[in-house]
Amino acid sequence: MSTPRPTRIGFATIGQSPRDDAVPAIVAALGRPVEVVEAGGLDGLDAAAIAAMAPQAGEYSFATRMADGSQVVLGKPAAEVRLAKVMEHLDGQQLDIVVALCAGTQIPPLKNALLIEPQRIVDGLTEAIAANARRIGIVLPLERQLASFHLEAEVAAEVQLAHASPYEGDRFAEAGRELAGCDVIVMHCMGYTEAMRAKVATASGRPTLAAPALVAGVLRQLIDMPATA
Question: CA-to-CA distance for 42 and 49, rounded, in angstroms?
């Protein structure tokens, strides 16, 4: 009986790599060895270049993580340009799967690796739950994101929003209390950890889902290849 080689997974972030706040937990949840390659849109950039990527007036904003753990806020167009370069680079690394560690970005299709877009996974599940709920809560990283966030699909449920950054401060209990009247809560960012999810769940008393765990569940089944004789 031969054992399949470890799946090679690339993780792309709009921030800096390695994402030791997110990738190790996802990999641990897979239940089997994998080979990991990481790359980030801000890798190799100096402070001036990163500052130039700040949101312009009217642009949607993304919060992401620097290698030192600090938060940086980027404008959507600039972040997507850098992310496209990262994805192209990873697609040439003989990987089986490439995971984008961000939600809300437009990602170009890959030629070689299977692309996993957390945005589609998280939004799809959120919309499925919201279709049969009275009220669904969504936690976003930045307060400024609340005004422009919307679900693509029409749902009957009321959508209630709160914010708590995974990279700066600790607003999770407060966000949980704000969403305590919801049927279920979805934490809509790949930077949220299990500890953060637990804080929201405890404060709200409501079932709470975090984006990284949802993506890890999909990955776990994708790499579940049995040994062959």
Answer: 9
- The segments of the chain whose pLDDT lies below 50 read 1, 229
Phi first, then psi: give them for residue 12, nearest 5 degrees: -110, 130
The answer to whether 7-117+214-222 and 120-210 have equal CATH topology is yes
For residue 78, report the phi and psi dihedrals to the nearest 5 degrees.
-65, -40
- Reply yes or no: is the peptide bond before residue 6 cis, omega within 30 of 0: no
Which residues on adjacent β-strands are paired with residue 9? 36, 97
CATH of domain 7-117+214-222: 3.40.50
Six-digit token pair at 188? 């809509």
- pTM to 2 decimals? 0.89
Query: What is the DSSP-derived secondary structure letter of residue 144?
Result: G
Question: Do the beta carbons of residue 124 and residue 214 sit within 8 Å?
Answer: no
DSSP 87: H
- Look at the chain and count its residues: 229
- The Cα 181–Cα 201 span in angstroms is 12
DSSP assignment of 13-25: ESS-S--TTTHHH
Tell me the CATH number for domain 120-210.
3.40.50.2300
